[in-house]
Design the sequence.
C-alpha cells in the first residue's frame, strides 16, 4: 500500500507469492504468533505466507483471532483471545485503551515500545533508504521518564450518545465512533473537567452536537491547549456555523474562565464538510486569544490555529539535538524549512548570524514574526509559502548559499524540488527533523544519492509515547 508520500508501507505486502485468498473466509478462526508491528501500531503475524494485521496485539503474543477481511495475500483479523502473552505485554492503565484509536502501544511496556521504535527507524533506513549504516552513529532513542500526561493539546470530537445526549472523547480505532473518555492518560488532568463544563453547557442550552452524516448541529470539537511552562490554558470551541447565539457563547466563556488555569476562550468556525478540525476563522470570546509557553530561553505566544509540538518536554530535547547538529558558531546563514511558528528558527537564531524560515500557513508566519519580536530576535526573516517554491526562488534570486539547512516537514516528507535545491545550495550541514521514518528514509536516499553528503548521526526522540509514531533528527555533512 502506498500512501500519499509514495513510500511503500508495511501494510498490504506486494510481491509475495499468491497463497490465494480462497484459503480463508470471514469469521474463520485462526491461531498465530505476532512477530511484528505495523505503521498504525497493530500487531502483524503470519499463517504460512499469509500476513495478518490484528489490533491490540503485541509482538511475542500467541493469539486466537477472527478473520474480518481477506485480501490477496494479507488480511485483517479481530483479537479473540491472547493464548500466550508476550513477555512485553502489560495490562494497559487506561480503561478505554483497547477501543480508543489513540494509544495503540499501551499494552506494551515502555521499554519494549522504545525498542520497537528504534527497530522501525532502522528497518526503514535500511529497506526504504537502502542506506549502509555501518559508519553512522544511530543513537539509542531518548525516552521519557514518565511517559504519560505529556500532551499539551487535546482535540475532542463532539457527538451524541444513544439517548441523543452530547458526548465528547476520542475516535475508536479506524472509525468516527466517539468513545467517551473521562480522563485521557496522555493528556493533562484539566481536560476532563473542562470537557464536562462544555457538555453541561450544551445540555443546559440545548445546543446540538454536529452530525457528520447530515452536516447539521453546532459543536464539532473541543480543543484544549496548555502552556506547560506558563500553566495557561486555552479552550477553543469549534462550531459548524457562526450563529448568533452570543448570549449562550458568552455564558460558556464565563463558565470556563472560572477555571483557574483557563486564561482565554475562543470560537473557531469550520463550515467545511471534511475531517479537518479547524476552520479558517477564530473569534475571541474571553482573554487575549493566545497562551504562552517557553522552550529553553525562547518564549512563544500560541493561537488556536498555530502548529505547536504536542510534547513540550521532549520537544526541548529534540530542538537541543537539532541545535547541537547545526553546530553554529555565530557566523552561519541558516534556513529553517517547514518552520511553523518559528520555534526551531528562534531556538537557532541566537547562535547564528541569520535565520530564514519558510512555512505554508500565513497565520503561523504571523505568529513567528510576533515571537521573534517578543524575544528581541532581529536576525530571523520569515517567508510564507511552500518550501519547494520559496527556496528555489530565493536561491535563484540571490545566489546566496546556506551554511546549514534544517527541515522539519509533515509526515509526507519533502517535495523533490525542495530536496534538489537543498543539494544545489551545498550547505555544510543538513539537519532533518522527521515525524515519519519511512518518508525520512526516502528523502535521505535522494539527498545522499550523488555522494555530496554523508549521513553521520541519527537520533530518535520519543515524542509520542504509547503511540506508534517515531520522531527523529538526523545529521548529514558535506562529504
Ligand atoms: N518546525 C515546526 C513545525 C513542524 S510541522 C515545529 O517544530 O514546531 C511541519 C510544518 O510544515 C507545519 O507547520 C506545516 O504547516 C508546514 N508545511 C506543510 N507543507 C509545507 C510546505 N510545502 N512548505 C512549507 N511548509 C509546509
Sequence:
Amino acid at each position: 500500500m502506498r500512501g500519499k508520500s509514495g513510500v511503500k508501507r508495511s501494510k498490504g505486502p506486494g510481491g509475495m507469492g499468491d497463497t490465494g485468498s480462497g484459503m480463508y473466509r470471514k469469521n474463520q478462526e485462526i491461531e498465530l504468533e505476532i512477530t511484528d508491528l505495523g505503521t498504525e501500531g497493530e500487531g502483524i503475524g503470519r499463517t504460512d505466507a499469509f500476513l495478518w494485521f490484528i489490533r491490540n496485539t503485541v509482538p511475542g503474543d500467541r493469539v486466537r483471532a477472527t478473520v474480518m477481511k481477506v485480501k490477496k495475500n494479507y488480511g485483517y483479523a479481530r483479537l479473540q483471545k491472547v493464548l500466550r502473552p508476550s513477555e512485553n505485554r502489560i495490562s494497559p492503565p487506561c480503561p478505554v485503551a483497547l477501543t480508543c484509536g489513540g494509544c495503540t502501544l499501551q499494552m506494551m511496556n515502555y521499554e519494549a515500545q522504545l525498542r520497537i521504535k528504534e527497530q522501525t527507524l532502522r528497518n526503514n533506513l535500511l529497506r526504504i533508504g537502502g542506506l549502509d549504516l555501518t559508519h553512522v552513529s544511530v543513537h539509542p532513542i531518548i525516552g521519557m521518564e514518565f511517559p504519560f500526561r505529556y500532551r499539551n493539546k487535546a482535540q475532542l470530537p463532539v457527538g451524541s450518545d444513544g439517548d441523543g445526549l452530547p458526548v465528547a472523547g476520542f475516535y475508536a480505532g479506524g472509525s468516527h465512533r466517539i468513545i467517551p473518555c473521562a480522563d485521557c492518560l496522555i493528556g493533562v488532568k484539566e481536560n476532563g473537567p473542562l470537557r464536562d463544563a462544555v457538555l453541561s453547557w450544551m445540555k443546559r442550552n440545548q445546543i446540538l452536537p454536529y452530525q457528520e452524516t447530515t452536516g447539521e448541529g453546532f459543536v464539532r470539537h473541543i480543543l484544549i491547549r496548555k502552556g506547560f511552562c506558563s500553566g495557561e490554558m486555552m479552550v477553543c470551541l469549534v462550531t459548524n456555523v457562526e450563529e448568533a447565539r452570543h448570549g449562550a457563547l458568552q455564558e460558556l466563556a464565563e463558565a470556563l474562565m472560572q477555571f483557574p488555569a483557563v486564561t482565554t476562550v475562543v470560537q473557531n468556525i469550520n463550515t467545511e464538510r471534511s475531517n479537518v478540525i479547524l476552520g479558517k476563522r477564530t473569534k475571541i470570546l474571553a482573554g487575549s486569544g493566545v497562551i504562552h509557553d517557553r522552550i529553553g530561553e525562547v518564549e512563544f505566544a500560541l493561537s488556536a490555529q498555530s502548529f505547536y509540538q504536542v510534547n513540550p518536554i521532549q520537544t526541548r530535547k529534540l530542538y537541543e539535538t537539532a541545535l547541537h547538529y547545526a553546530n553554529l558558531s555565530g557566523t552561519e546563514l541558516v534556513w529553517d524549512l517547514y518552520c511553523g511558528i518559528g520555534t526551531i528558527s528562534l531556538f537557532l537564531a541566537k547562535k547564528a548570524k541569520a535565520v530564514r524560515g519558510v512555512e505554508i500557513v500565513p497565520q503561523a508566519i504571523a505568529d513567528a514574526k510576533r515571537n521573534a519580536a517578543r524575544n528581541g530576535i532581529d536576525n530571523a526573516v520569515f517567508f510564507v509559502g511552500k518550501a519547494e517554491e520559496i527556496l528555489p526562488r530565493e536561491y535563484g534570486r540571490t545566489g546566496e548559499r546556506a551554511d546549514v539547512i534544517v527541515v522539519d516537514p509533515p509526515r509526507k516528507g519533502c517535495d523533490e524540488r525542495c530536496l534538489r535545491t537543498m543539494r544545489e545550495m551545498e550547505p555544510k550541514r543538513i539537519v532533518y527533523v522527521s515525524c515519519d521514518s519511512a518518508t525520512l528514509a526516502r528523502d535521505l536516499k535522494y539527498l545522499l544519492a550523488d555522494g555530496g553528503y554523508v549521513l553521520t548521526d541519527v537520533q530518535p526522540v520519543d515524542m509520542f509515547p504509547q503511540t506508534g509514531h517515531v520522531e527523529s533528527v538526523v545529521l548529514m555533512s558535506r562529504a
Observations:
- The chain is about 25% helix and 30% strand.
- The two ends are 35 Å apart (CA to CA).
- The pocket of S-adenosyl-L-homocysteine is lined by residues 307, 309, 338-340, 343-344, 358-361, 364, 386-388, 408-410 (CB under 6 Å).
